[in-house]
């Protein structure tokens, strides 16, 4: 073996101890603070982290689903409310329509020429008005509490029936009769305006307003019909105020119906469809309207002409009523489709929400199971890492015993160990006499790892030889009393070549004549103990 070290340690001090591997412990320490799954607290931290990562999208999805469901549910409720408002408006429109007919027929009855011929027609109108009032889904009483007859449906019917029964004894003029019924109708129109608002009706507000405008237009056309009937019955308007009332009613009716068509194209389409085939009716009414506006009958009244005007206006108003009904049907269909769509969305969203609600525990359990598996794997990995480090220490110890440390470190770094030429070195061979027999009965020990130390190698080897002789003198074999070690040493200085032989079982070998001479000196030398160390030293160290 070769030893070129600058200093020589005692044999029991020369065993190499590799550095303790502390990376795992450091990792465990630092990882514990950041949630190392090996520990219980780390497991909880990892569980919280993984659950949070998984649950964040679930919570977001749940929030979006809940928001969509709430919006859809709100739309569904709004559509239901709008549908209720529409049904209420339809029934309210029927009440207004039949009150208009009752008003106009009552005014015709009170006229001097029409009393005998319109009584039966007037009596036919009463039941129709009563049925329309009974069909109202609810009774509005907000802004009309100041009028006693509008405080409830029963009070209104009682008030209306009392007026009907007292019609012949009231001595009421046609104008007063028209004003009385018109004031009642205006209250119902106020209810209609209050029922339909933009905030409540939402997306279908324009169609509902158009529907409302058609009803208002019919009301003013009803006034136009009644006042025009008075004109033809008497051949003139009783007063300038009545004429202005007629003109105002006619203008407002035309403008209101035009407004309805502007709010909804469907009004114009339905009106044109219903008026198709009745173009002559429009021509007749246009001519008679112009005649009434001129007020030039000269006081010549005619019940037949008044009846003709009344019937033609009734036909025209029936066309508007049909337009009103068809518009209500169209709006109802749109609302029904919207409600069905919202209902389907709510069902789909409910299914998604139920699935999410069911999956949440499954996900949490899966995360919990996964965390447990990670913890088990981490513990197993940590155990294997510790075992690996332990084996690595053993391997390093064995490797350092087989090879010089510098050479072993090069092999561990996967570096090629090239052959090296030493121009000067001292080779040391030693042998313990009877070592084979002694080793058979005891355990062997191997010391030594060399390093280059310039020209001090001969002195170091010599010093080591003397140290060995000194140590072996004091060395006793506990289980072999009386048996002493006798050491044979051979040393020689000169050039050598070193290198690692083998890859699976590498060996650090020295080659050259210096090695051979040193080996011969050892094999041919005399075994000696400490007493003969000076003579042995003089003959064996070169």
Q: What fraction of the residues are assigned to beta strands by DSSP?
A: 5-15%
Report the radius of gyration as a whole number of Å: 60 Å
Number of alpha- plus pi-helical segments: 16
Low-confidence stretches: 1-33, 530-542
Report, as a whole number of angstroms, the end-to-end distance. 16 Å
Helix/strand class: mainly alpha
Topology order in helix (H) and strand (E) letters: HHHHHHHHHHHHEEHHEEEHH
Mean pLDDT: 77
Most strands sheet: 3 strands, antiparallel
How helical, in percent, are the residues?
A: 55-70%
Number of strands: 5
Describe how the helices and strands are arranged:
Blueprint: H1 23-34, H2 40-110, H3 119-134, H4 153-165, H5 174-195, H6 198-201, H7 205-234, H8 240-263, H9 265-275, H10 279-294, H11 303-402, H12 405-412, E1 420-422, E2 426-432, H13 435-440, H14 457-474, E3 487-493, E4 496-501, E5 507-511, H15 513-524, H16 533-540
Antiparallel strand pairs: 1-4, 2-3, 4-5
